[in-house]
Amino acid sequence: MEEARIKNLIRTWRGKSHNEGDQFASFVFIWFCFNAWIEHLSQKTSDRGMIDELKKKSANMRSIIEAYDNAHASDDFFNNSLGHLIGQSQEESIKDARGQKQPITIRDENDFANIVEAIYRIRCNLFHGGKDANDTRDQVLVKNAAMILRQWIGKLIESWG
What we know:
The protein is mainly α.
């Protein structure tokens, strides 16, 4: 897909994420943005391939990594949500709803690979029926993951000028 079209779609879906009152729907909308951009950068055909490229901080992922670093360096909403997500993962690891993968605990704010993996795990659990809209912990995990992605994608969009 043409880069200009992807950027336009990302701006639109991020706006919908901001306007959505339900944190689960908000997360889905911001995930569309994140997924579209990492697919564009990585040229991978699977979510796992895209996530692994990002976790390795491959050179082709430079723009999304720089946006993450900018959010981490300057955005209080990003850092507060990241702190909450780290705390939640340390209190109780983020489990795979299907029980096929190891639980994730984020060591600290510099544990980029596990931060990315935790957000992806939250996405997978939500998309594959492992999140309960009435469960308080699920609500908090999804809300914080959505805020991290929303601010991260916001910094990406800012970098486009």
